[in-house]
Specification:
518 residues; alpha/beta; Aminopeptidase; Glucose Oxidase, domain 1; 2 domains; nine-stranded mixed sheet; 19 strands; disordered N terminus
Length: 518
C-alpha cells in the first residue's frame, strides 16, 4: 500500500488507485485461453495471412467474442476497415549511369532490384551523392547529411548502420531504427533527394548480391499473393533500389573502395559523404496497384469517471499464412505463439474487466490489429485514422508472443521511453503469487511490433514478449508448445497495469528522436 501511494504521488500527485477488482480475477482462466487459441491457431485458419479469407474468419470470431463479452462498438461498428495497396513491379524497368560520353546500362534482377518501399518515377541525368549510411541521428551526434546538398540528386547509401563493438556508440551491436531501409528512404526524401540507391556495407572483400524485393513479375514462380502491401501514401515516394556488384564498382572503382570507406566510417563514426563527380543517374520505375480492404477489430469498455479518455490494450491477430513445408510435410504456419497468444490474452483481459461489477476510471479500448506481419500496417492505420482522438489516449499495452515463457523470463519493451508505465508494471509484478523475472532486453524488437505505431505519436507504451524460438515463423508454432498458465499470468499482469494506468495522470514519454512531429 505504501509503495502504491508513493508511486501515485511520484507520477502526478494522484490519490492511491483503486485495487484491481477481485471478481475480474475469476476470468483469467486457462480453459478459456485454450478454447480461444485452439480456434485461432487451428489448421482451418491457415495461418491468418493478411489479407485472406481465414483472416476475415478470425476477425469474425473476435467480433463475436467482443459482442458476447459486452464491449461496445465505436461509431456503430467493431470493424475499423482500411485500404491497402498490393503492388507489383511493372516491367520493363530500367537503370543506367552515364560517365562523360559513356552510358552503362544495368539489368533488373542481375544488377539491381527495387525495394518493396519504392516509389515510382522517371529520373533523368541526376547528380549522384554518396551519403554514408544515410543516417541523421542527433542523439548519437552523427549526421551523414551534414554539409552536403542532395536536393534533386540520387543518394547512394550503405545498408544498415555503423558497425562497432563500442556500446557507447549508437547501440553497439544492437540494431537501431536508423538502419532500416524505410527510415533511410524517408530521410532522403525529406532532404530533397529524387531517388535512393542502397549498397551493401562491405567490411571484407566479397561479391555483393542483389537483394531488393522478390517481385512476382520478376520471379514468375512466386505467387501473386506474395506481392508487397503498403498503406496508401499521399506523400510522393521516390524510387528506392538495391544495387549489386557491377553498379557498385562503377561508383567506387572497386569493391575494395567500398570496404575502405565502410571501415573508415565504422571505426571513427565520422561521415565520408561527397558527390560522386562526373557520374549521372537515370532510371524508370513503375508499379501496378491493387486495392484490398482489411480490418482491425475494436471494442470499447467505457470508463466510470473520465470515459472520454482511454488506454489501449492491443495484440495483432494475423500471422504469415501458408509457406514452405517442413520435413513432416506441414506447410501451415499456425502462429499459436505469434500471435494467437497475444490475441487470446486480449480476449481474456476484455472478458475479465467487462464481467466485473467495477469499471476502470478511464475507458479501455481493445484492438486486434491485422497486417502486423506485413509491416505494422494495422496499427499504423489505427493511429492514422483513430476512431477516438489520439490526444485522449493515455497509454498503450501490447501483447505479442506471450506463449512461450520457458524460464519465467518476461521481456518488457518501452522502459527507456516510458518509465512511469515500467514502474507500474514492476509494482504489479511483485504482487503476483508467482512474479515473473522481468528483463529489459528487447530494444531491437521495439519497432517490430504494434506499440511502435503508438510510440511514434508519443503515447506511453509497454510491450510484453516472451522471446523468439526455433518455431518462429515456422509450421512448428503450434498450440501444443504453449505455456498456457504463463500466458494467462502475463495477461493478468498486463491488465492490472492498464487498470491502474486508467486512474493515474498520463505517464511520461521520453522522446527518442524518431517520433512524428505532429
Amino acid at each position: 500500500m505504501i509503495l502504491s501511494l508513493l508511486l501515485a504521488l511520484a507520477i502526478g500527485g494522484a490519490s492511491e488507485p483503486r485495487p484491481f477488482p477481485p471478481d475480474a480475477e475469476l476470468y483469467f482462466d486457462t480453459v478459456a485461453a485454450r478454447r480461444h487459441l485452439a480456434f485461432l491457431s487451428s489448421d482451418e485458419m491457415r495461418g491468418r495471412d493478411t489479407p485472406s479469407r481465414e483472416l476475415e474468419q478470425a476477425a469474425d470470431y473476435i467480433v463475436s467474442e467482443f459482442k458476447r463479452i459486452g464491449l461496445e462498438p465505436i461509431n456503430g461498428s467493431y470493424d475499423q476497415v482500411y485500404d491497402l495497396e498490393r503492388l507489383d513491379l511493372r516491367l520493363p524497368t530500367s537503370m543506367y549511369f552515364t560517365r562523360g560520353t559513356d552510358t552503362f546500362a544495368f539489368s533488373v534482377k542481375t544488377d539491381f532490384m527495387p525495394f518493396e518501399q519504392t516509389g515510382e518515377g522517371v529520373i533523368t541525368n541526376a547528380r549522384v551523392v554518396f551519403a554514408g549510411y544515410g543516417i541523421t541521428a542527433p542523439e548519437y551526434s552523427y549526421d551523414d547529411y551534414a554539409g552536403i546538398d542532395v536536393k534533386g540528386a540520387v543518394v547512394v547509401v550503405l545498408r544498415g548502420e555503423p558497425d562497432n563493438a563500442d556500446t557507447t556508440r549508437f547501440r553497439g551491436k544492437q540494431f537501431t531504427r536508423h538502419g532500416s531501409n524505410s527510415e533511410k528512404l524517408k530521410l532522403a526524401r525529406s532532404k530533397g533527394a529524387v531517388g535512393l540507391l542502397v549498397i551493401d556495407a562491405l567490411r571484407t572483400p566479397r561479391k555483393p548480391f542483389v537483394s531488393g524485393y522478390p517481385w512476382p513479375s520478376v520471379f514468375p514462380n512466386l505467387s501473386r499473393a506474395s506481392r508487397p502491401l503498403q498503406l496508401p501514401d499521399s506523400t510522393k515516394r521516390i524510387p528506392s533500389i538495391h544495387i549489386g556488384e557491377r553498379p557498385t564498382i562503377l561508383l567506387f572503382d572497386s569493391l575494395a573502395g567500398v570496404v575502405s570507406i565502410t571501415r573508415a566510417i565504422d571505426s571513427t563514426l565520422v561521415p565520408r559523404s561527397r558527390e560522386i563527380a562526373g557520374v549521372r543517374f537515370s532510371c524508370s520505375v513503375a508499379l501496378d496497384h491493387e486495392i484490398v480492404k482489411v480490418r482491425n477489430v475494436v471494442g470499447l469498455l467505457r470508463g466510470s469517471e473520465t470515459p472520454d479518455e482511454y488506454a489501449v490494450i492491443g495484440a495483432h491477430y494475423d500471422h504469415v499464412g501458408v509457406g514452405k513445408a517442413n520435413a513432416e510435410g506441414d506447410s501451415i504456419y499456425n502462429g499459436a505463439d505469434d500471435n494467437g497468444s497475444g490475441t487470446t490474452g486480449l480476449l481474456l483481459s476484455a472478458q475479465a474487466l467487462a464481467a466485473s461489477t467495477q469499471r476502470p476510471s478511464r475507458s479501455i479500448v481493445y484492438v486486434a490489429f491485422s497486417g502486423e506481419e506485413k509491416g505494422l500496417l494495422g496499427s499504423k492505420a489505427y493511429v492514422r485514422a483513430s476512431p477516438l482522438p489520439l490526444s485522449k489516449c493515455v497509454a498503450m499495452s501490447n501483447m505479442d508472443m506471450i506463449g512461450r515463457c520457458e524460464t519465467n523470463k518476461l521481456s518488457i519493451g518501452g522502459n527507456e521511453r516510458c518509465p512511469d508505465l515500467m514502474k507500474l508494471n514492476e509494482e504489479a509484478n511483485t504482487s503476483l503469487a508467482k512474479p515473473f523475472n522481468l528483463a529489459y532486453d528487447i530494444e531491437q524488437y521495439f519497432f517490430r511490433s504494434d506499440q511502435a505505431s503508438f510510440a511514434m505519436k508519443r503515447i506511453p507504451v509497454i510491450f510484453y514478449f516472451t522471446g523468439e524460438h526455433k518455431d518462429y515463423h515456422k509450421p512448428g508454432d503450434e498450440i501444443s508448445k504453449i505455456n498456457m498458465a504463463d500466458l494467462v499470468g502475463i495477461t493478468r499482469l498486463a491488465t492490472h497495469v492498464m487498470w491502474t494506468a486508467t486512474q493515474m495522470p498520463r505517464g511520461t514519454y521520453v522522446p527518442a528522436g524518431f517520433e512524428d512531429n505532429d
